[in-house]
Every structure is written in structure tokens, then in C-alpha cells.
Amino acid sequence: MLMELDVKQPMCQMKKTIFTAVGLFVLDAFVMNQGAIAVITALAIIFWLLPKSALLKYKRESPTVPLTKAAIYGVMVLAVFIANFANNKIAKYRAESLIVAIEKYHQSTGNYPEKLSDLAPVYIPEVPVAKYTIIFNEFWYRRSHDSVAIFYVALPPFGMHTYSFNRRSWTYID
To answer: The whole model's pTM is what?
Structure first.
């Protein structure tokens, strides 16, 4: 009976750790889309879980639980950075398609569109979302008398990847 409790307790801890890691992944990758939670988690792994494991090993106790937690959270950190990188690559690819459509519109009409929805359905089927995130997932388009630009938020809340049609180049605005 005592042995059964000893096995169930670490398993329950691991389930909680997995549930927490999944929740943090979703929050950081698809809501905040920053990687801030992943960085804090990586620091916790480096400065808390790994030293705790070393201390347990030094005391001749099993470091399995903190090492397993470090591995689970490490996978979460890696997954957040991969998801954020992939989302930004997707946004850049979709932005390039919008740039081509905007240029075709400009060649056909002599003007840039007033808004992105003016491109559909002739130049594009519909205006795509920039990323697979809950917030900061749209493209923004700005047309004024002296400039035309399309941008999306690459690193919320302020880091914007911006394409200027006047300069025909990308810039990053923070």
C-alpha cells in the first residue's frame, strides 16, 4: 500500500506538470505569441529545477521528478519557439501573396486599394489571417497620400514587420 502511494504521487505530479505545460504553451504560442513565458520557464529550468536535481543527486536521493519536470517544460519552451517561428513564417508568406495582389490591383487600376478587402475576390479569394493566433492575427494596411504599407505584428504588442510599397522593402518597426 505504501509503495502504491509512492508511485501514484509522482504520476499525479507529472500529470499536473503536463497539464500546466500544455496550458502555458497555448497561452504563450497562440494567445500572447511572444515567447515571454517560454523564456521565464527556461530560466526556471536552468536556475531552479536543474540545481534542485543536482542537490538531490548530491544527497543521494532520486532526482527523477525535477528532471522529468525540466524535460516536460523544456519541450514546452521549444514548442513555443517553434510555433512562434512558424506563425511568423506563415505571416510573411501570406503577406508576400498580398503584396503581389496589391501590385496587380495597382497595375490594373492605377491606384492602390483603399482597403485589403478591395482585393477580393478578383485578386485574391479572401483576405487571409496573418497568423494562427487569437490576438494580433490580422494584416493591417495603410494608404495615405504619400505612402502605402502593409504590416503584421511579429512580436506583440509592438514589433511590426512592415512592407513599404514606396520603398519596395521590408522593415521592422518596434
So the answer is: 0.86
